UniProtKB/TrEMBL annotation:
Its main location: membrane. One of its GO terms (cellular component) is membrane. This is Succinate dehydrogenase subunit C. GO terms for molecular function: metal ion binding. Keywords: Heme, Iron, Membrane, Metal-binding, Transmembrane, Transmembrane helix. InterPro entries: Cytochrome_b-558, SdhC_prok, SQR/QFR_C/D, Succ_DH_cyt_b558_Firmicute, SuccDH_FuR_B_TM-su. Pfam families: Sdh_cyt.
Amino acid sequence: MSTNSFFLRRIHSLSGLIPIGLFLLEHLFTNSFALKGAKAFNEKVEFFQTLPYLTFIEILFIGLPIAFHAFYGLYIVYVAKNNILSYSYFRNWMFYLQRVTAIVTLVFLVWHVYVLRLAKALYDTEVSFEAISASLSNPGIFAFYIVGLIAAVFHFANGLWTFLITWGITVGPRAQQVTTYVTGLLFLVLNIIGINVLVAFTR
């Protein structure tokens, strides 16, 4: 592995946690205000939409890191050598699913950003509890959100496991086994939170 490749993979790994992973956690937390009803959720939306320097923050701290992580991630998917058909060990499957969920998450993210961010900027469409609720009343869109949620959360949780190894934090088999359980639990908890939010929009 060349020095440039080593450096880019480290940055790619780090960007998956900071800021993208943190943004995912914040996004799930903020959307959880839907559990408190339309008024509480809409107030949060208005708060974020009226932040000073919002466009600058979105581009610099969210858009650019996601773009780098996505495009370099596609390169990693392209050069990855999956061997699950020959060796169906647990970690080989996790390696394979990490690549699959990368693509699914990217497709979902592009659509999600267009509908809830770019469409508002271009056509001044409404972003509110009521608008999201109307969209999620479509079973196909609701199912798409479920798939996107599961893919994104898996990619984050399993990516966190890889991050800890990549950065030399979990170097032994015991530590890696423990983090497998921890990140698995994180995957379940975040999905429960996300699904609760989606259901809240459809009540």
